Model the fold of this input.
Amino acid sequence: MRTWLPVLVCAMVIAFESTPYLGADHTSAPLHKISEALCGYRVDAHWVLIHFLIRKTGHFIGYGIFSLACFRAFWITLQNVALRLLRQLQGHGLAILATFLLASADEYHQSFLPNRNGQFSDVLLDCCGAAVLCFVLFLVMRAAENRRQARVRAVCRLEPEYAEAVA
Done:
């Protein structure tokens, strides 16, 4: 249960955000006030573009975080995979696939709401967020594995009896 709970929580947050109450027509005013407070000046002249960018950045980051939660769950679930690299690739692939499926279902659901519209471009944006964050995590994990292997090799050179035990 603890393995998949973060995935469920992320999916529930996305489902909550997919309601009519958080459509662009309802988020514009509060985000406008926050933007003015952060920027220190009126953003009226460019508000349509700024609001669009805030919402699309939310898609990118939100679904990227969902994909990382999925990767974690698949990483734990796939413990029996012998090769670490294969386990990573399977976990990332399944996480991106899960993100695609959730994003598609979300956009399909939004197509039935009066103040929302389902757009396949949002699904692609969501999948890009998933792919980018998964790729960054992949690079971090590979770097950590390379450092770990370098430490093991250094210890094996210093302590030959340890090398025999590891082999």
In short: Residues 5-166 form one domain.
